[in-house]
Amino acid sequence: MTTEVLLISSILKIVFVLVVTVGAFAPVLIWAERRQSAMIQDRLGPSRAAIVLPPSAVAFIEKARLPMWRGFALTGIVAIVALVAVTWVAVRGTNPLPIPTATLTKALIGFGAASILLRVGYGVHGMIVRNHGKIMVLGLLHPLADALKFIFKEDFVPPKSDKFLFAAGPIIALIPAIAAFAVIPFASTLHLDYWNQVLPRTGEVSGTAIPLQVASLDVGILFIFAVASTGIIGAAISGYASDNKFSLLGGIRAASQMVSYEVVLGLTLVPAFMVYRSLRLEDMAMWQHEHSWGILNPLLAFGFIMFFTAAIAETKRVPFDLPEGESELVGGYLTEYSGMKFGMFFMGEFVEVVALAAIAAILFFGAWDVPFLHRDGFDFRLPFMASGIVVQLAHSVVIAIQVLFFLLKIVVFIWFQLMIRWSLPRFRYDQLMKLCWKGLLPLSLLNILLMGVFILSGVLDKYVGLLDRL
After folding, report:
1. Residue in 204, 200, 206 with CA at minimum distance from that of residue 377
2. What is the number of domains present in the chain?
3. Which terminus of the chain, N or C, has fewer Cβ atoms within 10 Å?
4. Does the residue 83 lie in any domain?
5. What is the pTM of this model?
């Protein structure tokens, strides 16, 4: 790989990480949380920011709705016919139509996608007409309005605070959360020389190979823990530097909570290291692609439950948001912050949620692995089928599907955290510490012991072999 290709690919990967984490996931997560809270509390919520279209554009959109509906109906009928024919070929082994199976498969994908897009467009156009030309996008413009508000708000600094530490706290809290994405693999290796070609399913591929992660480190997961641990300093010094008793108590709580649950967070992942025999995140993803997802291993499934619990506590989210407990500490270590400094804390917290969702997807749910998707395309083979459906895809399409499915897994974990956020009451501080030191810590050590016994006795290899045969 030449220096120019390496430099350009590195810059593009960094930009992609920033766009996905800071530019997309974090703002949408803020919007989703605000919208969900508005629904639960029966208030209007983030739905007022809008772009207003001129009357002529609204009239054109209204006229375009009927052709869209007709197109949706026609493409839907063709897609259904293709689906029935492809299913018949898969189950019976014969083609009922004088059309090649490959053409039917392409028709199913193409017309199905067109039908879905036309139906979505019909609904969106109807929403614009009903709102008299206001494009509100379900309130998704509100994160942009919030960002502008944070930028132009007064930056209040307490008179007796430590000015340097007070300003450094938000930076120390945000940067490590973003840096953790440096070792996150978003897809398998990209082979530039075969961009528009179908790769062989197995074997080595020569030419320029670009790993789809910013940095491929031998200690990938340990790098994440090392970087994440520096975020503790941001919360602690912010509470100390604010010259406020509520901020100080919140900073102490945040530091003790994050230190405690980092221990559990690391121990819950040790069984995964023992199974995958690597600390590199891309190797863990490849192991699951070649064998089975980690969540299908009972001990790793148990470890996932403990990991996810500790991850929510590590990010200081409800029901573990004691450092910011409004009913006790006003706003905790955030009490004296306003403007962009408060926005950086806010953004860092949500980026941490995305990072931990990505780690959970990589360690337990196959990362970028998609069922039935191989390096050369899809191969649908199930026990009850006489023959499988093989759809060969260009290498670029395979990579795009892997990236999209990995992001989809992250979205699912984020949604799950939001459900917990509005379903459980806040823990007491003593309950939080007991859960860590008397609950999760002994259970995580027991899980490590059991995994060691299973590996040494050969039970794990037999179980993995059984899943491979399925």
Report:
1. 200
2. 2
3. C
4. yes
5. 0.81
